[in-house]
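Justification of computing resources. Each target in the renewal requires a structure prediction run like the one illustrated here; the chain below, 477 residues long, is used simply to show the kind of job we budget for.
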Amino acid sequence: MIKKCIALGLLSLTLSSQSSLAASVENQSQTSSITIKSNIKSEDSLKSEFVEVIPGAFKRVGTGNSKIPRKLSAEEIELLKAQSQKRAKQRLLELQKSDMKVEYQIFDLLYNDRDEKALKQITRYNTLETNKQGYGYGSRDKPLRIVSPYMRKNGHGEIKLTNPVNIPSYRTRADKNKASDKEFKAFLEKNKGKSYDLYTARTKEEIKESIEAFFKPIELIEYPINNPKDYKLVATIPGFPKQIPSFAKNIHLHSNPPFLQGGSYVQLAFGGTPDQLKPYIDEARTDSKVVISKSDLSNVYVKNYVDSNMEYADTLKTLMPTSIVIVENTTVPMGKYVQNQVENPIEKSVDEMYALQNQVLAEFNKIKIDGEDSEAKYKRYVETRKRVEAERDRLKPKPTDTVGLGKKKYPIYTELENRKLQKQYLHRLSFNEDSVEIPAGYVIYLFDFGGNWNHPYALGAAVSPEKNYIIYFCQRG
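Resulting structure tokens:
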């Protein structure tokens, strides 16, 4: 979902033209907050520049006389490594402070976030000595906390600017499974009679609709919705603004849907003055179950249900997105998309699938078996289809050139040509993206969370220390 352009680890990052937003290319009247800060007066005298892409988040770029980022010398690389190690030591000292940041707060008065019994179960993180006490791990003195999705949210305040957050939560896994079964049965009842019948031929229009529905998520992943003008195309997310405010600047929108085993990620970030953002921050607090500094996320563990075993519990940091998507001002290349459209038009695929289904059904219907149960019938259909497909593949002409198949080249277009093609095929613009880590000083307002490290779920907002920038996020793994 997030595309990181990393070269030489911490060192050489490609400077993208990020002083303009994706939307500003479309002549939107937005003011960018991106600034350049010099570091030439530092004690190491290393000449470098920092691009601030969101408040508090910088990208380092080594520069020479050319506009193109220069290659750093071996001495500068070693110097930057030393600086990184110094910051890591400072971070460790920060972690060893006696308690959580002042931002930390939960709103469920009946919830015990210092549950010693649950803390003692976290054997993966506790040493034998600290496990007896139920606090800390290794040599760290900072106490740990426990939070759960079923905690009550704050709920004090009026919601006007953002979508309501009315997400059901379940105290036990059995309650969740019961609700899921009920929801699934309701879905089946609603879609009764609408399912695709394998044994009945579909029209070409129906086949075309199914192909388009299958490839749409792929298109949205390769060409994500990230133009602020297209915010109305993004699915309604609880807690997100109903619309982008007119004062918003430095906007970074991203939306990609789930596909197969992949997760989804939706983000809306924008800046303004503290007074302009105050109503949005107040509503975020109203919807929150937990308020916490990003630097404290690793000290809070998640207990999904009252009957969960905490032995291998995940921290909030594991479930949270750690980076923000940065939208650039150049569009995603259309060369591959256009060439695939030319070489494999959808009409060709529809004709092939239409002919295949008719041939399979013709072979399948040659045999009639009285009293054949559904499982045996389905198995016979699959075997028939495999046989027909194998025969069709055998008769297809073999490709003559197999050497260059893995090195296929696609046409390259100018930015203006690329935009025209996106509007022609996608009916919208989709921009290139980068990412930058959300600074540790940001305050996280968590509306909902859960899952595990493999399938994380987090819904909320991150606010800059100066309260002049807010990042709404919804991550589902």
